[in-house]
Amino acid sequence: MTDYPNTDYKLLVFDWDGTLIDSIERIVTSLQHASRTVCRLHVSEDVARSVIGLGLYEAIEKLHPELESVVIESIAAAYKQHFLHDNPVPAHLFDGVEELLHQLVADNYTLAIATGKSRIGLDRAMQEHQLGNYFVTTRCAGEMPSKPHPEMLHSILQELDAQAEHSLMIGDSAHDFMMAHNAGIKAVGVTHGVEDAASMQRHNLLACLDDVTDLYEFLSHNNQNLMN
Length: 228
Hints:
By secondary structure, this protein is α/β, with parallel strands linked by helices. The chain folds into 2 domains: 11-23 and 93-227, HAD superfamily/HAD-like (Rossmann fold), CATH 3.40.50; 24-86, Putative phosphatase, domain 2 (DNA polymerase, domain 1, Orthogonal Bundle), CATH 1.10.150.240. Helices cover 46% and strands 14% of the residues. It contains 10 helices and 8 strands. Strands 5-4-1-6-7-8 form a 6-stranded parallel β-sheet, sandwiched between helices. Strands 2-3 form a two-stranded antiparallel sheet. Helix 1 (24-39) packs across helix 4 (69-86). The radius of gyration is 17 Å and the shape is globular.
C-alpha cells in the first residue's frame, strides 16, 4: 500500500487540459495545423505535447523561437480557429470527472483552476461541460504570467486566504509541477495527459495517479492517516 503523506489538504487546484478534459490530441493537432498553414513548419507530436500547459503565445514562441511577433500572432489566430471550429477531434471530460468534483465539494474541499487556457477559452469550456459551479475561483494565462511562474497559485492562495501547506496542485505536465514547486505547493500527477508516470518521477510528486478519479482514494487515505 502506498504510504500517503500525513497532511490536511483543503484547497485543490486543478489544471484543465489533460487533467480534467481529454483534449491533448485536439490541442496537438491544432498546433500542428496552425504551424503548417501559416508558415509551412512541421511540428512533431512530442514537441507539440511538450508546450501544452503554457499560455498559447508562450507555447508558440517556444515552438518557433525564430519567428517574429506578427507571425506568432497569425499562428495563434489560426490555432484558435482550428481548435474552436474546424478540428474534428473531440475534447471530452475524462470519465467520472463530474462525479469526482461533486463528491469533493460535498466533502468540503475548496476547488480552483489554474490553466494555460485564455479566459475566453476557459469560460467557454466550463460552460460547455457545465463545471463552473464546482470551482470557487480560476486563473488563466494572459491574466498573469504563464506557467511555470507561481503567480497563478499565489493569487489563488491570497484570494482564498489559504495556506500553501494545506493546498494541492493536480496536473499532468511539467509546467504544472514546476509552477507548484515554485509556489511551495505539493503536487499530484495524473498520467492520462501530457506526461507518463516514468517522466513524472523527476518532479518529486506526492503521487502519480492513472486516472484523476483516483484522487478521491488518495485523499481518503490521507484523511484516514490523519485520524490514526
